[in-house]
Amino acid sequence: MALRLITFDLDNTLWPVDEVIRQAERATSEWIAECHPDAAEALTAGRIRAVRDRLVREHPDYLNNLTRLRRDAMAEAFIAAGFADREARHIAADAFQVFHQARNQVTFFPGALEVLETLADSYALGALSNGNSDLKRVGIDDLFAFHHSAESVGRRKPEPDMFHAALRSAGVSADQALHVGDHPLEDVDAARRHGFQAVWANLIDLDWPADLDRPAHHIHHLRELTDLLPLLDN
Fold first, then answer.
1. What pLDDT, on the 0 to 100 scale, is given for residue 45?
2. Contact at 8 Å (CB) between 194 and 164?
3. Which residues contact 69 (CB under 8 A, 6 or more apart)?
4. Percent with pLDDT over 70 in the chain
5. How many CA atoms lie within 13 A of 76 on its CB side?
6. Bond from prior residue into 158 cis (ω within 30 degrees of 0)
């Protein structure tokens, strides 16, 4: 059946994310040091990461809402540093806004914008992400018909919820949909299991897990996707 919908993962598919997160955490630490210097030593990025890891161990459902996870981790770190609960949560909310602003200052992989602009002329494009990036802040919301995240649907990939939401949003069936992503399990294998065609966007040179069937299609540069589509769109 003819392809009508192409969904994309975001982090490490359209842009490399590790340095983005480091820069966002650095901006948050600098904001805390400037606005709350008495708490800065106790609220390093490493300390907040340790609290986040503990929260996830205690409550794994935090992974379905990374905004709540980071905000609560910062609040707990503030409380541990001696702030009252209400003040800690208020400051954590402000600190998260600093983080989120920086978290959406991304550098696209070469060719990403051109590919999206080209595909948007012929297909409905959707974004499916376990992260908390904001397409409007990133500056590409006009290219996408919708954006579903673990936060918005309540379940992260590889669960089916986000893929089903995409099909409902586009009004198509799974055999009319293609998903493009970097993660072998959460993107490629999940898409295949939920009826989508899948392309592994291996732009950061990952190794494919030995316990998963290798994908039929993979790319190392997003521009390769436009050459691959005639094989998938039939």
1. 75
2. yes
3. 52, 55, 56, 62, 63
4. 99
5. 15
6. yes
Residue 44 has pLDDT above 90, yes or no: no
Which has the closest alpha carbon to 201: 214, 184, 177, 176? 184
- Contact status, residue 156 vs residue 186, Cβ threshold 8 Å: yes
Q: Which two tokens stand for residue 77?
A: 């770190």
In degrees and rounded to multiples of 5, residue 126 shows phi and psi of -130, 155
Is the per-residue pLDDT at 105 higher than 70? yes
- The CB density around residue 176, as the number of other CB atoms within 10 Å, is 20
Q: What is the pLDDT of residues 175-229, one digit of tens each?
A: 999 999 999 999 999 999 999 999 999 999 999 999 999 999 999 999 999 999 9
Q: What is the rounded CA–CA span in Å between residue 75 and residue 158?
A: 29
Kindly list the structural domains of the chain, giving each domain's residue range(s) and its CATH number in brackets, ordered by start. 5-16+107-232 (3.40.50.1000), 18-103 (1.20.120.1600)
DSSP class of 186: I
Count of residues making up the chain? 234
Supply 19's token pair: 């340095």
